[in-house]
Design brief:
The structure holds 2 protein chains of 2 kinds.
Chain A lengths: L2 E3 L4 E5 L4 E3 L2 E3 L6 E7 L6 E7 L7 E2 L2 E6 L4 E6 L8 E8 L5 E3 L3 E6 L1
Parallel strand pairs in A: 2-12
Antiparallel strand pairs in A: 1-4, 3-9, 5-6, 5-10, 7-8, 8-9, 10-11, 10-12
Chain B lengths: L4 E3 L2 E4 L5 E6 L6 E7 L5 E8 L2 E5 L7 E4 L6 E5 L8 E8 L11 E2 L3 E5 L1
Classes of the chains: A mainly beta, B mainly beta.
């Protein structure tokens, strides 16, 4: 069974700093997708970024980028120039051949003014 | 941008009562999902639905749960006899998902907070 592990329950950084959120996963599949979802205090689930496992190039979306290491089964999220609005719970997620999403436990990120 | 909408945003129900949570997926999407998030815990998959039948369900999705697409636009989750431990945030999601595994993201609704008293 696939598992997703986020080892940082909570992090705080100053506004404008760069922060990296860690995620590791376990799967025997070769073809899958990885996602980072953001859940602000309003409780919505917002897709931040996604990565196809067959692509070696790391995905980038404005201030958000990932470091995808397939062999190590690692998928970290980097937020550059962090903003107060980035304060949220961040979930790493895996989607394989059975189509359901497996979420990690989340990392609560606080951006401090 | 099209959105998944869920109603109500907050539902309070007495234990043992039936509750129906409603979702309107994005109109051209074919796959539908329900997830739940108990307060302070991770989001958990409940069920996926395609072509008017359940594709997959988790061990959480027992006989007390059912899903339906009654009219081609709504997608509902029914809990027949609610328990205290059913209190959670319930998220509906939908995706286009043409080929598995799909990079089409699941678009989530804002969730329904279910409180069982």
């Amino acid at each position: 069974a696939q598992t997703v592990t986020q080892s940082q329950p909570e992090m705080s950084v100053q506004e404008a700093e760069t922060v990296t959120l860690s995620c590791t996963y376990d799967t025997s599949e070769n073809n899958y997708y990885l996602f980072w979802y953001k859940q602000p205090p309003s409780r919505q689930m917002i897709l931040v970024i996604r990565q196809e496992a067959y692509k070696q190039q790391n995905a980038t979306e404005n201030r958000f980028s990932v470091n995808f290491q397939k062999a190590a089964k690692s998928f970290s999220l980097k937020i550059s120039d962090s903003q107060l609005g980035d304060t949220a719970m961040y979930f790493c997620a895996f989607r394989g051949g059975d189509d359901k999403i497996i979420f990690g436990k989340g990392t609560r990120l606080h951006i401090l003014p | 941008e099209p959105e998944v909408t869920q109603t109500p945003s907050h539902q309070v129900t007495q234990m043992g009562q039936e509750v129906i949570l409603r979702c309107v997926p994005i109109s051209n999407h074919l796959y539908f999902y329900w997830y739940r998030q108990i307060l302070g815990q991770k989001v958990e998959f409940l069920v996926s639905f395609y072509n008017n039948e359940i594709s997959e369900k988790s061990e959480i999705f027992d006989d007390q749960f059912s899903v339906e697409r009654p009219d081609g636009s709504n997608f509902t989750l029914k809990i027949r006899s609610t328990k205290l431990e059913d209190s959670a945030m319930y998220f509906c999601a939908s995706s286009e998902a043409l080929v598995l595994p799909s990079n089409q993201p699941q678009h989530f609704g804002d969730g329904t907070r279910l409180s069982i008293l």
